[in-house]
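Any chance you'd type out a single protein's sequence alongside its tokenized fold?
>
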Amino acid sequence: MSLSYSMWPVVLTTYNLPPWICMKAENLMLSLLIPGPQSPGKDMDVFLRPLIDELKELWVHELDTHDAASENGVFRMRAVLLWTVNDFPARSSLSGWSGQGYRACPTCNEDTPSMRVIGKKAYFGHRRFLPTNHHWRSNLQFDGRTERKRLPRRFSTADILEQLRRVKTGIPGKHPNYGGVKRKRGDDELNWRKKSIFYELPYWATIELKHNLDVMHIEKNVCDSLLGTLLGDPHKSKDTDNARRDLAKLGIRHELHLFENGNKLMKPTADYTFSEANRRKFCRFIRSVKFPDGFASNLSKNVAQNDSRLLGLKSHDCHVIMQRLLPVGCRSLVNKNIWSTIVELCTFFNQLCASTVNVSDMVEAQNQLVLILCKLERIFPPAFFDIMIHLVLHLPEEAILGGPVHMRWMYPFERYLKRLKDYVRNAAKPDGSIAEGYVVDEALTFCSRYFDDVETRFNRPDRNDDGIHPTRQLSVFESQCKPLGKQSYVELDNNDRDNAEFYILNNSPELEPYLK
């Protein structure tokens, strides 16, 4: 299937189910399939109309639903849309708030800390989130200026509705009514491009957490930025020539400024970049790590042949590197000020992704993240801070409102998208292939729940099932593990034989009557 073909499935899951099964693929419902080949963009609401109409009906009018556990076999069902789970670009299409520009952050709204750097916008200036009497606010090492702005405002649901009232309803795209060009937003519209169709739901305006920030994609982008800059990857590093010119423009960190040496433009080596020897040490460390089966992919395949950089990292690879490998691997390769800050950031992601989240821990993490981002601003150039780095600041707040992230991130849905892609048999008609394959799979899934004597996805053995363990005459020889590999014989010398006999005699309760 062509990579340029953009097709948007709308998947629903039932949060009333237990947490350990509500994200399983067999419990996900493909409610809509927005056809391609182009992304719907601002026209997303047109395709969501059937779903919104049914959600309004399920909220206003109760429907009779079969229930095998009740006495009469029927109960009155109502349904509510709790939130949406999507990546950041899709969030812009669903919510109506543009994720680009100086006000890209949907939480900070018009108080988003941002600045213009060469060739891009940087979301720099997190000292604003510090208390007004914090000594870092007057420190000139960040951007050469003192920070006098107040804390960003907290926008309530009523404030958001007031902003949406000022948004003009227009025809999206390049329309002849606007002279064949896109209509420009007014200053009073901020970053709102439209009022989302979700606001037609009676309860939607009162929900505090409407659209989740996806931890999976944020963690991957943060990991790519860190690894690319630490390893000096020419394709992914944020430490570019323009980033050094930004430092000269701000008048800070003079030791990192570009300088001319004859006819050449020289770029000083930064403390946050590995030396060539340390770069190879880190890559060899990643190559040598062994994980339990099913814990992670084979990361050694992602290390370049010359041990200079990491290639082709997937989202889960970055998840494992951020929380398990990077805190250990970079400790002796950069100075303490840098690796300690990186370890604090990785520890936060590890805490955030735990199966149980405490509100008090997230409140503390919110305060610590402000300090961590300020420390990063003293280490990396402003160009390092894209919108994904800034969005990390709001993850603890969403964890307090929505609970553990494994119910709100994209991992189960990305795996489900892989299943939908496998349905495609006719590359010329991918939409019909997915729709037909989904209907067949749903029918087979329903039938397989009633087959006990046939192996199905519900009763098949585990991938690493050890089977029935043979019984032994002595309990010391019993094992709950399944042997792997080719069988081999080892001949023991007299010393090893004596030690083995001593261990068996002293650890076998069956032999105790004979030893008395």
